[in-house]
Amino acid sequence: MGGGLWRAGLATLLPCGCMLCGALGRDPLCPPCRAQFCGTGPGRCPVCAEPLPDGAKGVPCGRCVQRRPAYDATIAAVSYEMPLDRLVLELKFGGRLAHARLFASLLAEASHAALLDERPALLCPVPLAPGRLAERGFNQALEIARPLGKLLTIGVASRLAQRVQETSAQSRLRSAARRANMAHVFAVPERAAVAGRHIGIVDDVMSSGQTLQELAAVLKRHGATRVTNFVFARTPPHRKH
Global pTM? Predict the structure, then answer.
């Protein structure tokens, strides 16, 4: 039996622990945890994925109406709250790459209903600067994008965009400094790969949205007709700086 088949067969025989509560089972999340933390969440703005007031559904929030972002839509699987925020940190800083496959699976579920006829031509993971990539050893956005692309049958263009400047971590900055921190950070080497196409941006967390805003603006300047964000977790308003 080949190595891959042997491991697949072994996985069906040996239970694993739920990533959140440790309960034994064959899925990365046990049914109770999935239902409690990954079930139907709040209604969200279709543009920025901010929670909407009760009863509102499918309409842009007031902020997006007043000042439309460069991106056209955002799909978020969960809110960036306990205990799911721990999984994000374990992926990003602990190298728990198996978490990326779970994030992609939950994002694909959220995407199927939302995408309808607006399927991107390509997925573009938010790039890391070379120094940070060398330090971390992987790009968590790319690790999510690869299985997500397979689940949605959309190609992943890992080098569609490049980060041309090192920046401070957005999570360490106040909102007033985030826009300046992300200015002129991204470049698109080949306009032909973007022009006239719907591009999907993939990232692990969306907080203020400045990173995604800047990358979407660059893609639009290079001719993208539509940009959709695919983020595993959306930071609730009360957790933003």
Answer: 0.85
